[in-house]
């Protein structure tokens, strides 16, 4: 199995070279692969094949590099990253259920209060890991300009989230539409601004602007969804009981944090019942926002910094100018 995988990597590496060189390169590389396989050095064999597959084919013999290289890498990163964020949410939910079911359920009485904080913490941790990779991808982005970069990030995100909502239920998609539209629009503007700041060299300001703006965007999305779902006024009261559920608007700035933590931070609002209502309609979207935002910010800020450095790097050294 290891030998077969290494051969597939060598074939991929050979296809990046001109046709007249491929057969000779394959024979040379497979001879080296045979030696490593004979010595049972499987890890070294995979490293050798992977290094050839990932190595850039620069130089006079490599021929003209295809334009689709950086464009293809950028498209792959922007299309796969939202799916990675969805995978993070799913994996975190599975781990949370295992931890709660196997350890907390019979050990402590507050296991129900631990579910959302655990889900949020694991999602945030994995999202930071994804963001580190996104920062590398952003440095090699083929997109030019802050607005194009922001749109390039958010368009695939919108398609993926709408697809997930539709797959779960059409009714859920209709219910979540106001919040999703608000989040997609506002976060696109935030990413645009963060990329523009990074392009001017104000990286710290870009991060602060992006983090605060993304938090506001997520809270705005939760507020729009909840307001569309629950009224503030209890309306007609029969036998001392309201006829439908309500959520007081006074605590709206805390709704996103309450959704992530299942807690009101010691404040009278939102009440435990209001937190239950809020999380019941928007918890999946709120956790998705948390999984997506770090990599989106890391990508646009890294791309903005690279766009600023690139023109200077292209200039010849001063000695040669003189």
Offer a quick outline of the entry.
The chain has 322 residues and is mainly α. The chain has helices at residues 2-14, 19-38, 42-54, 68-104, 111-139, 146-168, 170-199, 203-229, 255-261, 272-314, 318-321; strands at 237-238, 241-242. It folds into two domains: 2-54; 68-313, no CATH class.
Overview of the structural elements:
With 322 residues, this protein is mainly α. It folds into 2 domains: 2-54; 68-313, no CATH class. The protein is built from 11 helices and 2 strands. A two-stranded antiparallel sheet has the order 1-2. Mean pLDDT is 83; it is low at 58-67 and 310-322.
Describe this protein with a few key phrases.
2 domains; 2 strands; disordered C terminus
User: What letter string, H or E per element, gives the SSE order?
Assistant: HHHHHHHHEEHHH
Question: Number of folding domains?
Answer: 2
- The count of β-strands is 2
> What Rg is obtained from the alpha carbons, in whole angstroms?
25 Å
Q: Quickly count the helices.
A: 11
Which structural class matches the secondary elements?
mainly alpha
- For the biggest β-sheet, the strand order reads 1-2
Gap from first CA to last CA: 58 Å
Share in helix: over 70%
Reported for the largest beta sheet, the result is: 2 strands, antiparallel
Q: DSSP strand (E) fraction?
A: under 5%
> Averaging pLDDT over every residue, what do you get?
83
Unreliable sequence segments: 58-67, 310-322
What sort of overall outline do the alpha carbons produce when their principal axes are compared? Answer: elongated
């Amino acid at each position: 199995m290891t030998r077969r995988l290494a051969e597939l990597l060598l074939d991929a590496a050979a296809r990046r070279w001109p046709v007249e060189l491929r057969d000779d390169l394959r024979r040379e590389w497979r001879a080296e692969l045979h030696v490593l396989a004979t010595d049972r050095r499987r890890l070294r064999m995979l490293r050798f094949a992977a290094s050839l597959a990932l190595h850039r084919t620069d130089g006079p013999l490599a021929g003209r590099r295809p334009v689709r290289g950086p464009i293809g890498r950028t498209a792959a990163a922007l299309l796969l990253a939202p799916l990675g964020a969805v995978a993070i949410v799913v994996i975190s939910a599975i781990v949370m259920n295992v931890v709660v079911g196997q350890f907390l359920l019979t050990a402590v009485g507050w296991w129900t209060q631990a579910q959302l904080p655990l889900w949020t913490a694991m999602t945030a941790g994995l999202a930071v890991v994804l963001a580190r990779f996104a920062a590398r991808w952003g440095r090699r982005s083929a997109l030019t300009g802050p607005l194009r970069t922001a749109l390039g990030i958010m368009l695939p995100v919108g398609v993926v989230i709408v697809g997930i909502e539709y797959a779960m239920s059409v009714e859920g998609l209709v219910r979540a539409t106001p919040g999703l539209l608000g989040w997609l629009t506002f976060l696109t503007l935030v990413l645009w601004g963060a990329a523009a700041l990074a392009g001017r060299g104000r990286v710290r300001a870009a991060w602060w602007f992006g983090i605060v703006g993304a938090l506001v965007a997520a809270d705005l999305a939760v507020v729009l969804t909840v307001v569309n779902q629950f009224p503030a006024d209890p309306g007609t009261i029969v036998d001392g009981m309201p006829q439908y559920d309500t959520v007081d608007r006074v605590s709206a700035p805390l709704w996103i944090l309450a959704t992530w933590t299942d807690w009101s931070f010691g404040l009278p609002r939102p009440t435990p019942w209001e937190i239950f209502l809020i999380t019941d309609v928007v918890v999946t979207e709120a956790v998705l926002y948390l999984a997506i935002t770090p990599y989106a910010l890391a990508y646009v800020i890294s791309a903005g910094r690279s766009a600023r450095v690139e023109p200077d790097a292209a200039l010849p050294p001063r000695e040669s100018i003189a």
